[in-house]
Amino acid sequence: MYDVLMEIMEPKIKLREDKLRKEVQEEVRKEDIQGTINILKNLNLENSKIKSEIIKAYKLSESEAEAFL
Predict the structure, then answer these.
(1) 45: left (phi > 0), else alpha (psi -120 to 50), else beta?
(2) Which long-range contacts (CB under 8 A, 24 or more apart) does 51-56 make?
């Protein structure tokens, strides 16, 4: 019975795990970017310089970078 149930549910469980893993990775990435921005702001860099640096470092688009600032 367990084997049959696992055969049915395993793909759904895997999809849910994959989705959760992706969400966690994205949240960690956002926290990393925000931490980098905070450090650069503490060094008194201008927003335009910070924006260009995070675009390069994190491969963001202009609009994505702007949303963090």
Answers:
(1) beta
(2) none
Kindly report the pTM of this predicted structure. Answer: 0.79
CA atoms 16, 17, 18, 19: torsion sign: positive
Digits of tens for pLDDT over the chain (69 positions)? Answer: 778 777 888 889 999 999 999 999 999 999 999 999 999 999 999 999 999 999 999 999 999 999 999
| Alpha-carbon gap, residue 50 to 43, rounded angstroms | 10
Angle at 69 between CA 33 and CA 52, to 5 degrees: 70
Structural domain total, the chain: 1
Report how far apart, in Å, the C-alpha atoms of 19 and of each of 13, 29, 56, 59 are.
10, 15, 27, 22
Domain that holds residue 43: 2-68
